[in-house]
Amino acid sequence: MEIIKLEKYRPILHFAPQRNWMNDPNGLVFFKGEYHLFFQHNPNDSRHGPMHWGHAVSKDLIKWEELDIALYPDEHGTIFSGSAVVDWDNTSGFFPEEPGLVAIFTHHLERENQTPIQTQSLAYSHDQGRTWIKYAGNPVLKHPTKIDFRDPKVFWDEASQSWIMVLATGQTVSIYSSPNLKAWKFESEFGENMGSHDGVWECPDLFELNVDNSNEKKWVLFVSIGDNPQFETGSRTQYFVGSFDGNKFVPEHEDMKWLDFGKDNYAGVSFSDIPREDGRRIYLGWMSNWRYANHVPTEGWRSQMTLPRELMLRETGGDFHIVQKVVRELDTYFTTKEEISNVIIGTEDTNIYELDSEYAEVELILESVDASQYGLTIHHTKKQYTRITIDKNENILLLDRKNSGKVDFSDNFSRAQKVKLEDTNKMKLRIIMDSSSLELFINEGEQALTSLVYPEKACESISLFTTEGKVNVVHGKFSIPSI
Question: What pLDDT, on the 0 to 100 scale, is given for residue 6?
Fold first, then answer.
């Protein structure tokens, strides 16, 4: 398994472009043994600029090969976010001989001294996404008044026997249907007085999801919330659980549900056309935040994606919430260096576990004996560290990265990230550390916290701590690269 690290901060386990700018994942689709990742890309600069679709493929969702740019700007505008599907039954008429890929994307046209125009367009590929033909009838969908009219996510709905598009339309999500991907009919609009409206709505995704340990399924709608300077968090993603009848999505709750409690998981969507025998719903997000995305301290390239995650629903007291687990394909990239069981940590103890690795994984089951605060410190180097603290008095988990390395590019970056917890007496944590990121999963993925960091090294060691009492490390596993 050959892995080459090219520049400072470049991740090993996460996809990042070889050069220049990247943001939203687009066109996530599985076809003929390959996972396709298209992405918002400015090939001319490492800051946001005229959008193209970059392209990468993978056999295992972890190791990616970046290919040539898939879609370039044209007379209709630059190429904003969208999705891709396999047209198995040639509904579009593009594939008379064998199935192929169709990309459905937003054209964004800037006009001098006028409001930009956003429309939806198609491109299709006969060679597994290596080359693309733009549909001569573009654009296929316009709106007479809406300015924010973008990010189409399309899927085939078996119940209605039609293609369904969910589209970000300002502060709502609009739903359209089509028999052929070309002619679209408006079905309904969702979002008024629902969820968070702290920023513009973007990158919706609508899909059916299994409920863990049951035969039940629910529909889930993801909506990303753009940055608003009035709020500390910056951009983030909410979701709704409910029902969909081929025409209308109806949520079954009024509370706001957040996909991730870290600052660095945005604009994520799920893969289309995962084989039925696989059965997983796999999600990938952009690991950044619009508050500081253009200023993170990488040189020559900028941005990375989260690790792919399998999604499912879990029911607790009649309430359904998303559970996220990193895809099982990651397991082969790690080998266990050390395991511990039933180790009591007190305030005076200095339990340090050496890893000294370019990427690492820590799994812990921690049970408070009488500690008011406990947690772990990730020592990137002797002076650079990130601290994760469970506070029993406040019932929160805090991730503090202000001493993690390079942080001075944004005032917002150093502020602690927190998760409200139901039970702080016993915690199960999984932390995956790469060259410039931490992904934290709490209680087998019931909550997630995704965070960028910019240290000189990923992880030299891990230490465990408590304040005013003791904690029992019921089990701990420290893993390093398997190569």
Answer: 53
Termini Cα distance of the chain: 7
* CA–centroid distance for 20 within its chain: 20
Residue 104: name the closest of 206, 181, 184 by CA: 181
Of 285, 299, 326, the C-alpha closest to 23 is 285
Task: Please report where in the chains the tokens 């209605």 appear, as a residue.
Answer: 160
Q: What is the pLDDT of residues 325-379, one digit of tens each?
A: 999 999 999 999 999 999 999 998 878 999 999 999 999 999 999 999 999 999 9
Q: Which entry of 24, 148, 273, 434 is annotated as an active-site residue?
A: 24
Nearest to 466 by CA among 324, 381, 359, 350: 350
CATH code at position 469: 2.60.120.560
How many angstroms separate the CA atoms of 126 and 132, rounded?
Answer: 8
Tell the burial category of 279 from Cβ atoms under 10 Å away from its Cβ (0-12, 13-18, 19+): exposed
Instruction: Assess contact for 281 and 155: CB atoms under 8 A.
Output: no
326, 349, 367 — which closes off a domain?
A: 326
User: Both 55 and 190 in a single domain?
Assistant: yes
Kindly tell me the burial class for residue 173, based on how many C-beta atoms sit within 10 Å of its own C-beta (0-12, 13-18, 19 or more): buried
State how far the Cα of 104 lies from the Cα of 141, in Å rounded to an integer.
Answer: 10
For the stretch 369-423, pLDDT in tens is: 999 999 999 999 999 999 999 999 999 999 999 999 999 999 999 999 999 999 9
- Residue 221, Cβ density class (10 Å: 0-12 exposed, 13-18 middle, ≥19 buried): buried
Question: Domain holding 198: CATH number?
Answer: 2.115.10.20
Does residue 472 lie within any of the structural domains? yes
The bridge status of strand 301-302 relative to strand 20-31 is: parallel
The pLDDT value recorded for residue 228 is 83
What percentage of the chain exceeds 90 in pLDDT? 93
Euclidean distance between CA atoms 110 and 391, whole angstroms: 49
Q: Is 24 a catalytic residue?
A: yes
